[in-house]
Amino acid sequence: MSNSDIGTFKTCRRKWYFSSYLGLRDRHEPVMGPLHLGTRVHAALERHYAYGHDLEEAYVEIAEAELETLISSGVVFDERAWRKETELGRIMLVGYIEWLAETGADMNLEVLGVEEKLSYDMEIAGEKVRLVGKMDLRVKDTHTGQNLIMDWKTTNNFTRLTDDILMNEQLLTYMLLERLNYKEGDHQFLQGAVFIMLRKVTRGPRSKPPYYERVEIHHRKRRLLSFHTRLIGTLTDYIRVVKHLDEGVDHKLVAYPTPGQQCRYCPFKHVCDMAEDNTDISDMVNDLYTQGDPHERYGASETEEIAS
Ligand code: SF4
Q: 109-219, what's its fold?
């Protein structure tokens, strides 16, 4: 189980049922939108910080490779709109470099590690569970000596994101995984994260700054203990639901929907709606989705072990 898997379970069990339990993937995933923009920007920033690539060049390279793949795949998409969206990402990153030069917002950060995998095995309700995570970038604050995760968020609204970041469970999961894996002599635990937010604007004459913001979050041991307790609670529910589904219990009874804001971007919107009419959704599921591995990001070997 990963933080995103658990997060989906908590947000909407039906979405989790389709995506994690059944492993369904949208056959016709959109090729652009907020998620894609954020992924491109994130990938370029990671190349820049982890491998020293020029940020703008890295971004253009990523975008060009994506366009080539799209064209050769024969998928129908609005190329003009796609180019407009990727250009916005480029403008945001060019501005980011200017902002760093003005503020020195990253000058005290030294990269310690890239794409570190973390995992911890435990037993919940009589079942073996492996909690997994992958940290994109670990940095050291050379002023304070603190060990932090560095991450970037593209957003339209700084305030809302700042509030969300305070409760960010991904950071808590990584911090907890490190503590659970404690070995004699370990003293370099993560102490928090530095998030850099990039606003999704072209910085034209009518737009108003700020366009970038740095937010640092630290968590104490007490908060980690509390997170650990509620995580065990969630995992216990999770295992119970999986057992029920495996036994053939109706998914509506145990993996019920939670309608809300999250439905706007949910890839299972139509099939979810049909399920409410008690219609047989199997044909629709076969037409619209493929089955994949929800744990792909965490590596094949771990997934195979989990499956066995
Ligand atoms: S449409 Fe909404 S309620 Fe239905 S699965 Fe998606 S998030 Fe859940």
A: Lambda Exonuclease; Chain A (3.90.320)
